[in-house]
């Protein structure tokens, strides 16, 4: 099995086991039923097989999954169709340029009249194609109404062709004037009959390009709406995230405030506890100092009293001694001369005895 083909039979089962519809190898335009390779198959602009996998089973899987979630495959399909249509428009411009080079120049007035004929031809072709389609579907009444409109447009076309013929020489009028279809890049003749116009505008090629262009317009609109929705969702999520961050900051601030308050309370409790301990310790030290001071005071008082007693006894003894001395002095003064005379006599007697003793010895 080659890539780009529609898988059938056992090969399809094997492919489904190997590849999911989300795989990059799967054609997203095929999943959305707008791949130009499928639409233009069998026309003169058949593009051949797509380079990516086409599988109707994968399309069914995608349709089921897309109901549950947005896969946004429209963007890939839009890029694919834009690239294809851009190439088609480029070919159209090249075809117009070649026609301008090969066909003889005509005035702007004649060119406008020729363009009017081409427009009426296009309208006739579209009406005929639509009438044939309605007839094939069995809607005969609507088909007959459209054919009546075709007759009116044919009358307008005849008048436009007459004006165009009268505006230029007969030799030039007989020359086939071509026009490039703006939809499918095919060449249209100014003098094409109704059958040729109906075949072109009702043909698979032209209708296929119409389908591709309409699908591209639809994809652009869908992608724009989804992108706008995504932008709004992204903006809403960002606002919610910012609101959550603000709430988180506020909550964090309150938490920090509570934490700080608890910390301050703990510090205050510790401070009060430390103060109490200090006061207790201070009181204890004060009591100890007071006890030591009292002990020293008592010791000092005892020593002082002892010293006082000693001083009192010394003073008493000194007073007594002084009193005795004074008494003795008074007694001595009272004994006075008597004692002195006695002592003088005794002294003289002793002196005579001493002298007598010395003389005797001699």
From TrEMBL:
GO terms for cellular component: U1 snRNP. Residues 223-362 are annotated as: Disordered. GO terms for biological process: mRNA splice site recognition. Residues 223-248, 309-342, 352-362 have a biased composition (Basic and acidic residues). GO terms for molecular function: mRNA binding. Residues 85-163 form a coiled coil. Residues 249-308 have a biased composition (Basic residues). Keywords: Coiled coil, mRNA processing, mRNA splicing. It comes from the Eukaryota. Belongs to the Luc7 family. This is RNA-binding protein Luc7-like 1. It comes from Muntiacus reevesi.
């Amino acid at each position: 099995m080659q890539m780009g083909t529609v898988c059938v039979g056992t090969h399809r089962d094997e492919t489904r086991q190997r590849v999911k519809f989300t795989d990059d190898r799967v054609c997203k335009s095929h999943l959305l039923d707008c791949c130009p390779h499928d639409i233009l198959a069998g026309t003169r602009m058949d593009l051949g097989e797509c380079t990516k996998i086409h599988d109707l089973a994968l399309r069914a899987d995608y349709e089921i999954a897309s109901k549950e979630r947005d896969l946004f495959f429209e963007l890939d399909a839009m890029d694919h169709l834009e690239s294809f249509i851009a190439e088609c428009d480029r070919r159209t411009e090249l075809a117009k340029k070649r026609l301008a080079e090969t066909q003889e120049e005509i005035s702007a007035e004649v060119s406008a009249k020729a363009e009017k004929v081409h427009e009426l031809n296009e309208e006739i072709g579209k009406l005929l194609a639509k009438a044939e389609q309605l007839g094939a579907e069995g809607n005969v009444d609507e088909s007959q109404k459209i054919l009546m409109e075709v007759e009116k447009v044919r009358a307008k076309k005849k008048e436009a062709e007459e004006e165009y013929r009268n505006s230029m020489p007969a030799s030039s009028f007989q020359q086939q004037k071509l026009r490039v279809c703006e939809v499918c890049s095919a060449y249209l003749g100014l003098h094409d009959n109704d059958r040729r116009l109906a075949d072109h505008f009702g043909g698979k090629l032209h209708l296929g390009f119409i389908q591709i262009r309409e699908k591209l317009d639809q994809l652009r609109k869908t992608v724009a709406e989804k992108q706008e929705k995504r932008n709004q969702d992204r903006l809403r999520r960002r606002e919610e995230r910012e609101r959550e961050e603000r709430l988180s900051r506020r909550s964090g601030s309150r938490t920090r405030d509570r934490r700080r308050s608890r910390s301050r309370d703990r510090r205050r409790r510790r401070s009060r506890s430390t103060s109490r301990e200090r006061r207790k310790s201070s009181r204890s030290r004060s009591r100890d100092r007071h006890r030591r001071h009292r002990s020293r005071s008592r010791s000092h008082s005892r020593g002082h009293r002892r010293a006082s007693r000693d001083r009192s006894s010394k003073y008493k003894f000194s007073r007594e001694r002084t009193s005795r001395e004074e008494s003795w002095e008074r007694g001595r003064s009272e004994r006075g001369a008597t004692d002195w005379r006695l002592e003088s006599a005794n002294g003289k007697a002793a002196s005579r005895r001493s002298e007598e003793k010395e003389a005797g010895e001699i």
